[in-house]
Amino acid sequence: MDTILDIQNLSVAYRGSPAPAVRGASFTLGRERLGIVGESGSGKSTLGRALLKLLPTADITADRMQFREVDLLATPEKRMLGIRGKRISMILQDPKFSLNPIRRVGDQVAEAWRVHVKCSKAEAREKALAMLRSVAIRDVERVYDLYPHQVSGGMGQRIMIAMMLLTEPELVIADEPTSALDVTVRMQVLSILDGLVRDRGIGLIVISHDLNLVRNFCDRVLIMYAGRVVESLKASELDKAQHPYTRGLLAAQPRIGGPRRPLPVLQRRPEWAEEVRA
Fold this sequence. Notes:
Largest sheet: 6 strands, mixed
Radius of gyration: 19 Å
Order of helices and strands: EEEHEEEHEHHHHHEHEHEEH
Number of strands: 11
């Protein structure tokens, strides 16, 4: 496997917090789609941000935190500015909070190109328009001049995807990329991301609480509980999960046409936070 990312024993502790938010996480990523699943507070978003060193109030430690030829742990902030957005991008979950409300969306997409590439405003505009077309946005000339409040949630998410993929990164971290979207738009967004993995050979990390999404979209899945990766398995084998926490997550899902009885309450045990299962 062509390894894009190699993480070994990664821990993240917020200053002033009594317990680490992420503890001893280890995994590798190639040209594939990796899902990271867990409840709110399990540490999955913190893990994603730690990879980009976007946690100024946290201490990050690891035995290995390697992206291609780059030792992320030892890389100074000045060099990270050239990696973020260019070689590693992060798609955040809600465009309403990610886009600048007082700037036109097209200018924000073009800026993502001009930050990393020396070019004229006209060249950046053409690059941004082409990228907006590639994420299935119609009438891009009109959309380019809109403000964030003038676009729908689905279009806003596609604009964010265009912005993050403009520089053709090698690794994309998508944090709940479809959580605010309806089913139809969700499938469109996933189709765009799937095409990028297939056609450009990027590595994709999908952070989600939606087991059905990662089951049907990802290649592999990491299950996180209380900051630990408690289980790792192929997405196609999710129903064969062995860890009781993963089994509990699966059992707590409502199913159309399933038995009409109360869903089981998810059990949580302190010892699960101390063990790791491959």
